[in-house]
Amino acid sequence: MEKNALNIVDERTQASYVIPIYKRTVRAMDLRQIKTGAEDFGLMTYDPAFLNTASCQSAITYIDGDKGILRYRGYPIDQLAEKCTFLEVAYLLLFGELPTESQLIDWIDNITHHTMIHETTKRFLEGFRYNAHPMGMFISTVAALSTVYPESRNVHDAEVRLHQIHRLIGKVPTIAAYTYRHSLGFPYVYPDNDLGYAENFMNMLWKMVEPKYHANPVLARALDILFILHADHEQNCSTNVMRAVGSAQADPFLCTAAAAAALSGPLHGGANEEVLRMLAEIGSKDRVPAYIANIKAGHGKLMGFGHRVYKNYDPRAKIIKWAADQVFQTTGKNPKLEIALELERIALEDDYFIKRKLYPNVDFYSGIIYQALGFKPEMFTVLFAIPRTVGWLAQWQEMLEDPEQKIARPRQIYTGHDAREFVPIEKRGV
Ligand code: CMC
């Protein structure tokens, strides 16, 4: 008898099947052989929202949600956040190993030389209204890059792919900064190749008439750490979109735009913006208990709380809390922090949240730092999309190189009508 297997008896037919267990999963296709007769299609699995389905094998990011562990390519997230720069981590995620010194120099050089966007793309941004949401502008402009680089369609050419990866990682901060400048009516600032990734982003956001922009090093480092923490998170909603759209062999600009569209939703990356709205709505610390009581009564959700995978404190939230302290020493405390801490304190002692294992997630504190850094809530999800572009691209590459992957095409359980006769319009009643 095969030990690493399931022995299944179909009560409908009394037939038995041995289904191998592969890396703690069963292959859904192995169930197809379970049939009641020759006409039967065979068993499928039903898993709306992928609660218990592995859609791929991946060597990029490891999460143990019960223990609150997050690792990129085996390295604990806290070590990477403490010791690396964002571009070093980007290299690790994409290529599997930390770069040597010369690899890092080349990598930074490649990214830095792809930060400018075509002037026509810059003008494309002019078409948006002054009050357009930055995330809408970001998604559309990333998609528009597809028209500028038609060779990017050649997704099976590794060299072409790498070129687009450089372009995307280089250009997303530029696009993000331009959406911000557009909303303020300020002239766009060209990238400055002397500056690091986060510093250059700050330069494009905030430089005015001074000849050279000098970022505050504490704030630039905090932003770089936030980028590291947001770089990848295995098969989340937007990454799943990246892989699904990529599986149809769309070019990486369009895949990234699609993934960013998923990220913009309030249950995903849009949650950081919602957290700030929630804290503003609560207004003061003494109103926290009433707010929580209202949530428990079924009126909405506590934004920045809960996670599909983490049933423990999100390890990123811990590091963000630490980074927030560093930022606040420079910028002064964000008054919303007091409300957030009180919300966390009460929620973590409350049965409703304990029973459901609801803890602060990455979005709970990130918005408070972003606000202290000078960003408006509308920009928060764009700040998430910049680093996550790296994770999306790493996952996209892995998907394209995986011989088991095909176009993503789920099955369904059809619940509609059986075949019926067409009814002419005059017989359809009034
Ligand atoms: N506040 C109050 N109750 C909650 C919350 C919350 N934030 N999150 C989940 N619950 C309750 C939910 O109502 C359900 O209760 P019951 O069993 O009585 O029906 C239970 O907890 C299980 O929740 P679920 O909705 O089945 O969990 P899920 O895995 O489908 O959803 C989630 C995960 C992140 C969408 C959800 O927790 C949520 O909506 N949180 C608020 C939005 C948020 O912070 N999103 C950011 C996620 S982290 C970063 C990212 O992915 O971008």
Structure characterization notes:
The chain has 17 helices and five strands. It has 430 residues and is mainly alpha-helical. The strands form two sheets. The chain has a three-stranded antiparallel beta sheet. It has a two-stranded antiparallel ribbon with strand order 1-2. It starts with a strand and ends in a 29-residue tail after the last helix. The relative contact order is 0.12. The mean pLDDT is 95. Bound molecules: carboxymethyl coenzyme *A. Carboxymethyl coenzyme *A is lined by residues 236, 267-269, 271, 295, 301-308, 356, 358, 361-363. Carboxymethyl coenzyme *A (CMC) binds at residues 236, 267-269, 271, 295, 301-308, 356, 358, 361-363.
* Distinct ligand kinds: carboxymethyl coenzyme *A
Oligomeric state of the chains present here = single chain
- Structural category is mainly alpha
**Largest sheet geometry:** 3 strands, antiparallel
Main sheet: strand order: 3-4-5
The total strand number stands at 5
Separation of the first and last Cα atoms:
65 Å
One letter per element, helices H and strands E, the order comes to EEEEEHHHHHHHHHHHHHHHHH
Whole-angstrom Rg: 24 Å
Helix content: 40-55%
